[in-house]
Amino acid sequence: MGLTTGRVGHRPRKAILGSGYGTERANAMVELTFERFDLDAYYTTVADGNERSRRMIESYVEAFGGRHEGLLRQYKPRPNGDVTDQHRYSITREEYESATDSK
């Protein structure tokens, strides 16, 4: 059987930026990925240059034992036609279980 993964994206409203809701949502999604959906890996991307979101993602990915996979060049098209570079982060089931002492 192959690897099962899931991906989620979000764009928070400006009114909630810096409130901690992004980290709270991300932690819940990571937990759902492994505990509810029984997937093998979680991953997310963030646009190069979006340092605020990148720091938030790095903090929760690190907390769950994950890693920065690298920069995906010319990866994601925007509605205006621009194509952006994206940083990819992942957490595997093994990393999650080690970080949370789950079995």
Report on this structure:
The structure is a single chain. The protein has 103 residues and is α+β, with helices and mostly antiparallel strands. 36% of the residues lie in helices and 30% in strands. Strands 1-2-4-3 form a 4-stranded mixed β-sheet.
List the helices and strands and how they pair.
Blueprint (H helix, E strand, L loop, with lengths): L4 E3 L13 H16 L4 E7 L3 H13 L3 E11 L5 E10 H8 L3
Parallel strand pairs: 1-2
Antiparallel strand pairs: 2-4, 3-4
Features of this protein?
globular, 3 helices, 103 residues, 4 strands, four-stranded mixed beta sheet, alpha+beta
Task: Please outline the major beta sheet.
Answer: 4 strands, mixed
Coarse morphology: globular
Structural class, judged by helices and strands?
alpha+beta
Low-pLDDT stretches: none
**Percent of residues in beta strands?**
25-35%
Strand order of the largest sheet: 1-2-4-3
Considering DSSP H and I runs of 4 or more, what fraction of the residues is helical?
25-40%
- The number of distinct β-strands equals 4
Query: How much is the radius of gyration in Å?
Result: 14 Å
Count of helical stretches: 3
Order of helices and strands: EHEHEEH
* Mean pLDDT figure: 86
Q: Quick recap of the structure?
A:
By secondary structure, the protein is of the alpha+beta class.
